Structure formats: structure tokens, C-alpha cells
């Protein structure tokens, strides 16, 4: 069942041939004729380990009830203790992988529309991560190495709070020449028509990002990047600006946008102006104009394309229904990408992003019900 969106506002995906219709049945879930591996993501795969803990556990590891930190030496034993002492749930995590999972959930069929590359260890947590990715119906191809263990993120829940402790470990060890350059892996890159990488991966392998970004630019496919965090805009500015000329769709939130504007000397704090200026920065593929999409929590989402800036209100939600806002940004991107890969209008992509984020913030972690209810 092909998308019935108005043609005028579509982003055209070049070189995508009209495929024969091979929908299983004309249900509303079959949103468009998609091939497996149409959407490609690359980033830091982390196994999220979620558990309801007690205050003693937080105190033992000097954790604040509501925080996000990178693991230090004193947290080394935390992960094993969490698994031993408490009832844990495992979820395939990491920003990019979360977004690819959400996009796949929104699309439903066919499975494996989303491909994901990243680095894990040869260990128990790596095996769980592979299993969880499979359950989410994403086609994960991990670079597996033995020097570092699989990256993990402990989510220590007390009441409505969750304290996140991330240990990147193996995620930091991705190697272009050991994985991305391999013929069978590069073939998966070539199959994709939309690419998404979170800014966090700029700290790991900028050469891998550039190889994918240049491929997208040369073949007139869509390359999407997320600013991800203020520290990326500040301390990894050189890497970010090496990749920026290849960016077709830029995502970020209000704090990341402010940090980016400051580093780029935009001399404005107005989010619409920031979106416009980021949109106008130099671009290699001139066949497409850059689109900049900036979210602001419960406030309007701002989108700049061409010479216009539009705003979109988010789905209203009762504050008491909010369980966990940590996955909201990843979920928004996932929803947006699900529309993009189906060649929906940009307005529909934003709508899909708002829907996904609204579902995810009512649940713990970046998790979702079996099926979306999105029209």
C-alpha cells in the first residue's frame, strides 16, 4: 500500500526505483513498499540494564537519584552487582540503535528495514545485545572484539527517578578497516537510502562517519546527523564540522542548538534563527537543501528548510503520565526516520516523531508496545 501523502512536499529519494508491490496483505501496517536495509544506522551499542534498586545501592556507588554519568573506576562492580541483587530487564540501547529500533517499530513490516553497525565484546552481554536486536527486528551487524567488554548502561530506578551510568567500553573500539570496509558490510551501506548517525559516534570513528556521509552525498541519498549533546558541539567541534557539509537532515534539542550556535559564533539565542543559520552552512550535495529539526521538550519543534522556518506543536501530555523522558529525543528521531525512509512529507515525519516520543515517555527506558497506533 503506497503512501498517499501529497506529492508536493516530499523529499525525493533519488535512484529509488518503483518496486513491484509485494505487500503480504493490504493492512494498514504495510505503510509503503520498503526493502530490508533501507535505513542505516551506525553508533555506540549499549546494553541497557534496568532495575528497581534501593537507596542503599545508590549511596554505595554515590549516585544521585536522577542523573546521567559515565562510569568511573568506582562503578566497575556496579553492573555485576545490579544483575546479581535485583530483578533486571535488558534492552538493546545506545542513542542510534534506539532510533533505528523505534523506526523499525513504527514501520512494522517488512522486518530488518533498519541496519545497525557498532562494536561489542565477545561476552554474555554481547550475546544478549544480539538477541535483543533480533527481537526488535533490526539487522544488527556488530564488530566483535575481545579487548573490551560490551558497553552497558545501568538504569537504576527509584520511584519516578532513574540514575543512568554508562560504560562505553567496546563501543569505543569500532574500526573502519576491520568492519565498515569489509565488502559484505559495505554492500549493506549501499543498499540503504537513508543514513542516521548520532553525534556521540564522532568521539569514536569520524573516518567511518565520513565514508558513509560521502557515499550518501555522491549517490544523492539522505544523510542525517544528531548533535546529541552540548559537549559534542564544544569539544568535538572539529570532527563535527568535518562531517557537517554532508548533512542533509540535522537533529538536535534546544540545549544542543544553543551550544552549537555559541561555538559557531551565530550571535543569537533565538532557536528559529539558529535553525536558519545551521541550515545555511556550506553543503557538498547542492541537489538537496539541508533540513534542520530542533526539538524543545514540551515546546514547539522548529524546522528550517529552504528560506522558511516552521513550528509544530507537540502532542499534549499530562505531566503525571510521564514516566521517563530520557529516550524522548531518540524516539522522536526514530519516528521521523520512519517517515523519511517511506518518502513521507516532512510534516508527516515530524508528526511521526512526536507520536513516537509521546509513546516512549510514558514508559521506562526506550521501550514500546507491540504495535504503534499512528495514522
From TrEMBL:
UniProt xrefs under Pfam families: PfkB
Chief subcellular site?
Answer: nucleus
Its domain of life?
Eukaryota
Instruction: Look up the record and name the cofactor or cofactors this protein needs.
Output: Mg(2+)
* Residue positions of the active site: 330
Enumerate the UniProt keywords alphabetically.
Answer: ATP-binding, Kinase, Magnesium, Nucleotide-binding, Nucleus, Purine salvage, Transferase
* GO terms for cellular component: cytosol; nucleus
Q: Which GO terms describe its molecular function?
A: adenosine kinase activity; ATP binding
**Pathway noted in the entry:** Purine metabolism; AMP biosynthesis via salvage pathway; AMP from adenosine: step 1/1
Q: What is its EC number?
A: 2.7.1.20
Q: Where is this region: Disordered?
A: 1-30
GO biological processes: adenosine salvage; AMP salvage; purine nucleobase metabolic process
Q: How is the cofactor bound?
A: Binds 3 Mg(2+) ions per subunit.
Protein location:
Nucleus
Family matches, as CDD domains: adenosine_kinase
Question: Which residues does the UniProt record annotate as the domain Carbohydrate kinase PfkB?
Answer: 60-369
Give the quaternary structure: Monomer.
UniProt lists the family membership as follows: Belongs to the carbohydrate kinase PfkB family.
The entry's protein name is: Adenosine kinase
Q: Which organism is it from?
A: Oryzias latipes (Japanese rice fish)
What lineage does UniProt assign to this protein's organism? Eukaryota, Metazoa, Chordata, Craniata, Vertebrata
Amino acid at each position: 500500500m503506497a503512501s498517499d501523502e501529497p506529492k508536493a512536499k516530499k523529499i525525493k529519494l533519488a535512484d529509488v526505483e518503483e518496486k513491484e508491490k509485494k505487500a503480504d496483505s493490504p493492512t494498514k501496517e504495510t505503510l509503503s513498499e520498503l526493502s530490508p536495509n533501507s535505513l542505516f544506522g551506525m553508533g555506540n551499542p549499549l546494553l541497557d540494564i534496568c532495575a528497581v534498586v534501593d537507596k542503599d545501592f545508590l549511596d554505595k556507588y554515590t549516585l544521585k537519584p536522577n542523573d546521567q554519568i559515565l562510569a568511573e573506576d568506582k562503578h566497575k562492580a556496579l553492573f555485576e552487582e545490579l544483575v546479581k541483587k535485583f530483578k533486571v530487564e535488558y534492552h538493546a540501547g545506545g542513542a542510534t540503535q534506539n532510533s533505528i529500533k523505534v523506526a523499525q517499530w513504527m514501520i512494522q513490516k517488512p522486518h530488518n528495514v533498519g541496519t545497525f553497525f557498532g562494536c561489542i565484546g565477545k561476552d554474555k552481554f554481547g550475546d544478549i545485545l544480539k538477541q535483543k536486536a533480533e527481537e526488535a527486528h533490526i539487522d544488527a551487524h556488530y564488530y566483535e572484539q575481545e579487548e573490551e567488554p560490551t558497553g552497558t548502561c545501568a538504569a537504576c530506578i527509584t520511584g519516578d527517578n532513574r540514575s543512568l551510568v554508562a560504560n562505553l567500553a567496546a563501543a569505543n573500539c569500532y574500526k573502519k578497516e576491520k568492519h565498515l570496509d569489509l565488502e559484505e558490510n559495505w554492500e549493506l551501506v549501499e543498499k540503504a537510502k537513508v543514513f542516521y548517525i548520532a553525534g556521540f559516534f564522532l568521539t569514536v570513528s569520524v573516518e567511518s562517519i565520513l565514508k558513509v556521509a560521502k557515499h550518501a552525498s555522491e549517490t544523492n541519498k539522505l544523510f542525517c546527523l544528531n548533535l546529541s549533546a552540548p559537549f559534542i558541539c564544544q569539544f568535538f567541534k572539529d570532527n563535527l564540522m568535518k562531517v557537517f557539509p554532508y548533512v542533509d537532515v540535522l537533529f538536535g534539542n534546544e540545549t544542543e542548538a544553543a551550544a552549537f550556535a555559541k561555538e559557531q559564533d551565530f550571535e543569537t539565542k533565538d532557536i528559529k534563527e539558529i535553525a536558519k543559520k545551521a541550515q545555511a552552512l556550506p553543503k557538498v550535495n547542492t541537489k538537496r537543501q539541508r533540513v534542520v529539526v530542533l526539538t524543545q521538550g514540551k515546546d514547539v519543534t522548529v524546522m528550517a528548510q529552504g528560506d522558511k522556518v516552521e513550528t509544530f506543536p507537540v502532542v499534549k501530555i499530562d505531566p503525571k503520565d510521564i514516566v521517563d523522558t530520557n529516550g524522548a529525543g531518540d524516539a522522536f528521531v526514530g519516528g521521523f526516520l520512519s517517515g523519511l525512509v517511506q518518502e513521507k512529507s516532512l510534516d508527516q515525519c515530524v508528526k511521526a516523531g512526536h507520536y513516537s516520543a509521546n509513546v516512549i515517555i510514558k514508559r521506562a527506558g526506550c521501550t514500546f508496545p507491540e504495535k504503534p497506533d499512528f495514522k
